[in-house]
Amino acid sequence: MPSIALPPGQPFSLDQTLGCGQVFRWERSPDGTWLGIVDNHVIRIRQEGTRLRFRGAPEEFIRRYFSLDIDLLPLLSSIDNDPVIHRAIGQCNGLRLVRQLPWECTVSYICSTNSNIPTIRRRIGLLAERFGTRIQSGGQTFFTFPEPSCISCKGHEGLTICKLGYRQPYVYGTSCTVTDVRSWEKKIRRLPYEDARKELMKLQGVGPKAADCILLFAFQKYDAFPVDVWIRRILKEQYLPDLPTDAPLTTREYDRIRKFAKEQFGEYCGWAQEYLYAARIL
DNA sequence: GACCAGGAAGAGT
DNA sequence: ACTCTTCATGGT
């Protein structure tokens, strides 16, 4: 089994990284081995101290997916600007943002609205089972995440068994809009954060929160700061006590929070968001 | 059964 | 440009 030696001074925690809620198609077995489907790879990976043992994809793919090329300590010290984020960083030692595939990430966060993580995971799994390509690995069957044309091929009723609820027409509509994933991806990647955000929000089912998640998790726009109910709660408790409690989050409040986060944490505020989110339960 | 979950669209104003 | 309502599903 191939392995990667993590260099000293380059913190990485597989459990923090895959367990923090940024990805939906990874599962941890009791012995600590994670199994995930990324693109057309069925990856099995475990961490033994400062060594990663893996199967199912080339080493370079693993390094890139887990952002092992990023020098984490300077990045963290750039956001480590107050006691609250300091504690979150301490609690989530070795958490890294991964580089998700844009199309899968987009559909995932369309499916995420007003839902909890287990439900989102189930929807993504159903989409793959229904429309993805079969992969055999280790005597088991898995499915890739489907291309847009595969999702839309049977009309929007074909999606019903995936139990997307009111998100079904959004996934269908967006699949019809993004016919050419490669050029779509290239177009978004080329744009700076604010422009890319506007472009993504043209897609059905993609609002401010989903757009920010897609930009942060799939396009490495690290100045994106997704605001969900948890982040809003944390910011109200720890930073902005005058935020309204339970009224629906308006565009103006969302933008105020984004602006605050950028000023408080800097150009890597998206990483701060993920540390705060991951530490929310602790 | 009420309430919540990594919100967004559409109508009405 | 703001406010209000509705949306489908599963877990607690």
From TrEMBL:
EC annotation from Swiss-Prot or TrEMBL: 4.2.99.18
Biological processes per GO annotation: base-excision repair; nucleotide-excision repair
SUPFAM superfamilies on file: DNA-glycosylase, TATA-box binding protein-like
Classification via Gene3D superfamilies: 3.30.310.260, Helix-hairpin-Helix base-excision DNA repair enzymes (C-terminal), Hypothetical protein, domain 2
Domain of life of the native organism: Archaea
Residue ranges constituting the HhH-GPD domain according to the UniProt record: 111-281
InterPro entries on file: DNA_glycosylase, HhH-GPD_domain, HhH_base_excis_C, OGG_N, Oxidative_DNA_repair_enzyme
GO molecular function ontology, one term from the record: damaged DNA binding
Substrates-to-products reaction catalysed: 2'-deoxyribonucleotide-(2'-deoxyribose 5'-phosphate)-2'-deoxyribonucleotide-DNA = a 3'-end 2'-deoxyribonucleotide-(2,3-dehydro-2,3-deoxyribose 5'-phosphate)-DNA + a 5'-end 5'-phospho-2'-deoxyribonucleoside-DNA + H(+)
Keyword field: DNA damage, DNA repair, Glycosidase, Hydrolase, Lyase, Multifunctional enzyme
Major enzyme class: lyase
Pfam families: OGG_N
Family: Belongs to the type-1 OGG1 family.
Protein name stated in the entry: DNA-(apurinic or apyrimidinic site) lyase
Species classification: Archaea, Methanobacteriati, Methanobacteriota, Stenosarchaea group, Methanomicrobia
